[in-house]
Amino acid sequence: MANRMKYYVVNRAAMCYTDSGRGIVVMTELKYKFTNDTLFKMLFVTHPELLKKLVAVLLRIKVDSIGSFQIRNPEMPPESLGDKFCRLDINMDVDGQRVDLEIQVDDNGGYYPERTLYYWAREYSTALPSGGKYAELPRTVIISIVGFELFPCAEYHSEYQALEVTRHTPLSDRFVLYYFELPKLPATVTTDNGMELWLSLFRAKTEEDLSNIEALGVQEMKEAISAYRHITVTPEFREMERLRTKARHDEAQALYNMERKTKLEIARNALEMKMSVDDVIKLTGLTRKEVEGLKVTN
Length: 298
Hints:
The protein is α+β, with helices and mostly antiparallel strands and 298 residues long. Helices cover 43% and strands 15% of the residues. It has 3 domains: 1-30 and 186-216, no CATH class; 33-184, no CATH class; 257-297, no CATH class. It has helices spanning 37-46, 48-59, 78-81, 112-125, 194-203, 207-214, 219-231, 235-272, 277-284, 288-297; strands at residues 7-9, 15-17, 24-26, 69-71, 90-94, 97-104, 140-146, 157-160, 175-181, 188-190. Helix 4 (112-125) links the parallel strand 6 (97-104) and strand 7.
């Protein structure tokens, strides 16, 4: 009998009905997903052979064709993990190319393409050594795996280069941006599509999703999931994640305080201009008690 291509259908919810319709299968949500930036960097930095395979798939090249592969920023200093500006991306040199790989779960108010343009410009501009020639600047690639829909298209994979708008001829091969939108991945993932198989790890939300991927029998997936399960129980990872979580909470609180301060200042100015309390409430979103309290102090 001929070998059959294996596949699985992703679970799109944490709970679903069984085939018989008589019972309910409750899915076990992952405490840490592959899109967790602390986990992402720790896993692939400590398992560079898996990172190499992932990058080869995303760049659509054969892993055996990669001669030189080096991670340029393997460090994860604990003192920096609490910094809200700390990025846990992975910078690599891949056969003379500069490649930066990042996970982004949320859109955070938009402008993500502009953000990746900034990262590209920084990587490209810092690649030229003092006294170096422009011709020595390397091809610089930014790879973004995102957990949200970014572009108005059906395809999950987008590649951007600098092209002339009429003739569509490339300006230079040094500029490349790759985006992979996880929500657009097909529900059915097969063993003959390595790109979708790797990306399905980052889309996985439940233990059942990981088990289904393992059941496909692909050695690379088994290795990646085994590494994931090992790392997520280590004290080192737990402490790093605690620091990152605290930084996220502190950032959210600081943002809330700043927004509230701005609203209060707008409300004070509006009251001084004799705007009614009802109009100030509509303008700022503050409660009546908050606005009337400002009116008393004024």
